[in-house]
Structures are given as C-alpha cells and as structure tokens.
User: What shape does this take?
Amino acid sequence: MNPLWRRGVSVLLVSAGILATQVAHGENLQEYAQRCDAATGVSVPAFDCDDPAATEVPMTHPHYAPGSSTQVETCDRPNRLNSACDPHSRFHVLVRTPDAFVVAHCRKKYNAPGQYGDIAVIQHNEKNGATCFYQEGPASGLSHKVVTPKSANGEWLQPSAVKGEGCVGCHDNGPIIRSPYLAQITGANQLPGAGDVTFNKDQPYYFVGSTFTDWKAFKVTAKVRNDQGQWEPDTCNLCHRMGVSNVSSGGTSLDFGLRATGSQPEQSQNPHSADSPLWMTPGTIAYNASNEASAKAIAACAQQYKAHPDSPPDSDTCTVTPYTGQADSPDHCAAIWAKNGTGDWLARHGMSAADYQAAFDANVKKGYRLVSVDGYEVDGQARYAAIWRKVAGPAWVARHGMSAADYQAAFDDNVKKGYRLTWVNGYTVQGKPLYAAIWEKSAGAAWVARHGMSAADYQAAFNDNIAKGYRLVLVSGYADGNDARYAAIWDKSPSAAWIARHGMSAADYQAEFDKDVGKGFRLALVSGYKVGNATFYAAIWDKNPTGAWAARHGMSATEYQAEFNAYLAQGYRLQEVSGY
Assistant: This one.
C-alpha cells in the first residue's frame, strides 16, 4: 500500500529549469491568421484592390512636379503614412459587423495598372479590442489580386516582418488613424466609426499573436496654462486618446498631433482651405493656438516617457499610462499541445461544478475516460477544465471538490482497493483548499504521493524522493490562506533527463522555459496558481521523445479558446491545461 502522506514536499529541482512560454515554436502567417480570426470573430477574405466595390481615395486639386504630368507634389489631403499625395490608391471595407471590421488600403505609389506598392489590412473587434495587422510590401509590382492570409500563397509578410514595420508606432491610440486623407471617404467604404468623434477615446485595444506581445501603447495626457496662467487639461484628449508607443518616435503624440494643429500646411498639402482643412479640429480652416499648445504639451510629456521608458511620468501636468491589453480576466490558463497520439478526445474549460459533473457523466457513457482535471476559482465559484480520451485502459475512479480530509479518505480507500493515483490537482475556492483526483487500478512502478505541503516541505520531500530513485511526474500548486501549498506524485518509472521547478513568477518561468527549451527539453507539465494577488508556476520538463509541441501561459479564457482553435486546426492535441 502506498499511503498518501499529508505533509510534504513543495516542489523540485533536479537540474535547473523553468518552463512557460508564449509559443514553443515560431508563429507563421497561417497560425497568426487563425488566432486573429478566433479573437476578432471575423476573417480576412481574398480581395481585389481594383474591385469596383472599393473606393479610390479622392485626390483633389493636385499640383504636379515641374515637367511632370503624373508626379503630384501637393494636394488637398495627402496621406499621413509618408506625407505624400498618392493618386489612384484605394480603400475597401472588406467586412463590417456590429462588433468587428476588416479594412484594406491599397497604396498605389505610382505603380502600373493592376499593381500596387503597399497593401495593408487591419482586422479589429471593437468589443474586446483584438487587433491584427497584415502587410504586403512595401514593394513595387504587387498584384491587385490578394489572397486570404490563411493561404500559404500570396505576398503577405510573415508576422515577424510585419512587426518590423512597427505598425503600433503610428497606430498608438487605436486601430484607425482618422486623418483627413481617409476621413473624406463616404458611402459603403467610409472609415469605421465615421461620425463618432470619440471613436478612439476609450475603446479596448490589444494586439493578437505571440509575435506582438511586446508591443505596448500608452495614453498621454497633459495640462496647459491658459491666458490667466492657470493649468487646464489638454483639449486633445477630450475627443480621443493621444498615444505613444514603445516602438517608434512617431505616432499621435510625438508627430500627428503637432502636424494636425500647426499653423502651416502639412508636407505635400495645399494651403489651408475648405477643401484642404486642418486635421484638428476636423473641418476647420483657421489655426487655433490653444489646440497647438495642447499638442505641444502632449508631445513634451511623451518625450519624457521616451527618455525614461521604465518609469513613465505620472504628475499633475503629465501622465503616461499603459492602456493596451485585454481587460483583466478573472481566470487564466496555461496549456500544452502536441502532435502525437491517436483516438478521439474531448476538452472543456470554464465549467461550473454542475456542468463538469454533467459533462463527466455524458462522456463516460460514450466510452471516454478522464485523463486530467484542473479546478480553479472565478468570482468565488469553482470552475473546471478537463480532458477526456476514448482509449482502452484499466478500471478507474475520479473525484472532485474534495476537502483535504475527504481526499485523504478517498486516497486511503482507493489504494486499499488496488488503485494508484495518476492525477491530483489542488485548487482554492473562497480560501478553502480542494482537491480533484484520478486513480487507476493498474500495475506499475513504485510510487509515492503527498499533498498539503508547504514550499519547504515540498522541497524536502522532493530531495528525499529523488535520493531514493523516484522522479517527479506531477506537481500541482495552490494556496492555503496566504501560503503556497503543493500536491505531487513521484514514481520509479524510467525516464529521460528531466527538470522541475516551482514558485516561479511569470518572468522567471518564461526565462527558464526559453533556456531549457534551448537545451532540448520539452515542457511535460505546467501548473499555474495564485497566492494572494501573485501568480506562480510549477513545471516539469523532460527529454522524452515527442512530436511537434507548443505551450502558452497567462492566457485569458478568450485567448485560450483562440489558441485551442488554432492548434486544433493544425492537428495538435491538447495535452494539459491548467486554470488559475
């Protein structure tokens, strides 16, 4: 009989190493497009820049370069990306739903008929802020016929190259730059949010995909002295955000705001008139010194951030605050996928106790067996994530929602009946530690299990068991009050080299993950857990052979679902999911 010791070990360390990563392999265009579709709820279709349904961006009152009948030097509303008049460029709202949109901008850049010099697409969900950028070019001779980015063909840049274009450097206050150049379009292809002067004021905004996780945008606010010498809030932020990013020296605060409010026409712009208005305030002709003063104050504040990006300014007259990112989710997930195994399988997450029991009963009737279950707390209630597989195997038993005493009793009873513990998960609901577990009636290597261990107890048990020839096969972290607790299983089954760590912060986990994966280890198990307001990770890596695999952590429920869908479409199977 293998008793379930009540005291124990905290967690491990056999070589060194941590694990956790955004994605264990590179994110290609097709993977990115799948994640974007899942996050935004819309897809980027194939399209034709020359489609009559698209709109040619108006270019009024062109003035041509001396001796040229084609090269335009100035016009009423030049584009803002490169401050140029770009005749025959086209704009197309490809998809528009109540919640999301996909828009394409085909920049002509004096290419031959049927060809373009730069094709850009923005995919955005206005409710959750999910945003994706796609790019063809800049390059001469791009075809007017554009395939969907989910296709392996076409001239789309890979996400890493799009990142190099630094889109957030301009798009730092939201997905759409509402300049007079594109704002002049009317009809079916008018800019999303047309007529809403607060379009980019406080809407959510974040960048989908692991490639873009380090893109950050910040809201910049400042105060300006009025004619009486009193401080007043800047006027720019009354209608929309003014942004600055961690990517470039341009954007709304450092560049566009100054251009939009200056007394002189912008580069390549005709003199101010009703047809060639100032950018800010929209539709105006007369220069407004107060507006420019606000823009200059905001630019000076943004420069303070650029000078000291690790300590953004936060004073009464200048504040720079991060705003990009998904709304904080009460539940997060870490998961592992791999291209291995056969047979049917099912996975669910976010289930209440009643939903989990119902899914459990239904799946068992269909011949599935539970292989993992993870409990976690959302808004004071238990939630469950679980994986079932339709595979042959020995008799098995599973329980959830057990107190420490109930778990010990169930453990003792099942071990007496010849069952061995194959899975244990500790989780906390309303401050109370609970357990979910799976036992199988099977022969196997010698094994030991512990739960309710403090970090020190866990480390001691870990060291003791390793000295006796056991290896760690499972560790689950959870909280008991303000202290971390651990449940773990060790056995004497053969294994390749392995590493285990616990008590890691997200940054520590990512760093160790990168280091160990670089040494040829794969993530075999990850447990995310919260103690107070802090999130920690425990993990195991090994060098056992496996196919292609990927791992993510720190995902919201929405992000996890998007990743799940993307990996499923690529033939991956979920190996483990940890909710916290």
In short: The longest strand covers residues 369-378. Residues 1-26 have pLDDT under 50 and may be disordered. The CA atoms of residues 287 and 310 lie 36 Å apart.
